[in-house]
Specification:
Blueprint (H helix, E strand, L loop, with lengths): L8 H11 L1 E4 L5 H13 L7 E3 L4 E4 L1 H4 L4 H4 L2 H11 L4 E10 L7 E4 L4 E3 L11 E4 L2 E4 L3 H6 L1 E6 L10 E3 L22 E2 L7 E4 L5 E3 L8 E9 L17
C-alpha cells in the first residue's frame, strides 16, 4: 500500500502487519538522491564486496564500504520514520546496494529472504543451512528471528513494473516458510510495488517477492537495509551491526 506523508503512522503499521509491506514517498529529495549517487560512483569497485556484470552491479556491506553515505541515508525524515515505526532499539544488520541497469535481463522469481549475514560459522541449534556469498557467511535462522527483521528499500530511481519493481504476495509473510512452488494463485493475489525516486519501501523478509526484467530502458537503483533489535545466540554475531542514530 502507498502511504502519503499526511496519513497516520497507524495506517503504515497496519499495512505492514496485514500486507507485509508499505511504500512511503518523499523521504529523500532529488538533491539528496543525487548526493548518494555521487558517493556510490566514487567508490572503489575493485573490492571483493563489489559484484559487476552486464546485468547487475551490487555492493555487499554497503554502509561499511561507503561510510560517507551513512549521514546522507539517515536524514531526519528517515530516522523519524524508523524511530516511530520500529522504536529506538533497532539497528542495522545488513546493507546491500543493487543497480539493475537499463539493459538488464535479470529476473528474480518468487522467494523469501531466509538468510542472515554473520561474521563466522558457529554451529548453533536451529541455525542452518549455511552458505557462503562473496566470502561472507550466511545462515538461515529460526523463523522467530526472520519475523523480527524489517527491510527498508531506498529507491534512487522511479520504479515500476517496466524497470523491475518488486511484485509481492500480500500477507504471505504471516505464513512462515512459504515455498514458491506451493503458492495457490487461486487464493493469493499479486501486487506490484511502484516506488517514486526518493521514496522507500518497507517490507518483511518473509514476504514472497519477485522482480521482472527491465523493459523500459531505465535503471533501478536500490539501497537495501535490514534492521533487527535482537542479538544472536551462542557467539554468533551480525557481520554488519551498525547503529541508526
Amino acid at each position: 500500500m502507498a502511504i502519503t506523508e499526511q496519513e497516520p503512522l497507524q495506517t503504515l503499521q497496519s499495512g505492514l502487519g496485514t500486507n507485509g509491506f508499505a511504500v512511503v514517498p518523499g523521504i529523500f529529495t532529488s538533491q539528496e538522491v543525487a548526493a548518494m549517487i555521487r558517493e556510490i560512483e566514487r567508490a572503489d569497485s575493485l573490492k571483493e564486496t563489489f559484484r559487476k556484470s552486464a546485468g547487475l552491479f551490487a555492493i555487499r556491506q554497503f554502509l561499511k564500504e561507503i561510510p560517507a553515505i551513512h549521514r546522507l541515508i539517515f536524514n531526519a525524515r528517515l530516522k523519524q520514520l524508523i524511530t516511530q515505526l520500529l522504536g529506538s532499539r533497532y539497528f542495522v544488520v545488513k546493507s546491500i546496494y543493487f543497480d539493475k541497469p537499463a539493459a538488464s535481463n535479470w529476473f528474480v522469481s518468487y522467494h523469501q529472504d531466509l538468510t542472515i549475514s554473520v561474521d563466522q560459522r558457529i554451529e548453533v541449534p536451529g541455525f542452518g543451512p549455511w552458505t557462503m556469498k562473496q566470502h561472507q557467511f550466511a545462515v538461515q535462522p529460526p523463523v522467530s528471528f526472520l519475523e523480527n527483521i524489517f527491510t527498508l528499500r531506498i529507491h534512487l530511481d522511479d520504479t515500476n513494473a517496466a524497470n523491475g519493481a518488486l511484485s509481492v504476495v500480500p500477507g504471505s509473510h504471516r505464513k512462515g516458510i512459504y515455498r514458491p512452488e506451493h503458492i495457490d494463485w487461486a487464493v493469493e493475489k499479486e501486487h506490484t510495488c511502484c516506488v517514486p525516486e526518493g521514496g522507500v519501501m518497507i517490507m518483511k523478509p518473509l514476504l514472497l517477492h519477485s522482480s521482472e526484467r527491465t523493459r523500459n530502458g531505465r535503471s533501478r537503483r536500490v539501497i537495501h537495509i535490514e534492521f533487527s533489535d535482537r542479538e544472536l545466540p551462542n557467539g554468533l554475531k551480525w557481520v554488519e551491526r551498525l547503529p541508526v542514530l
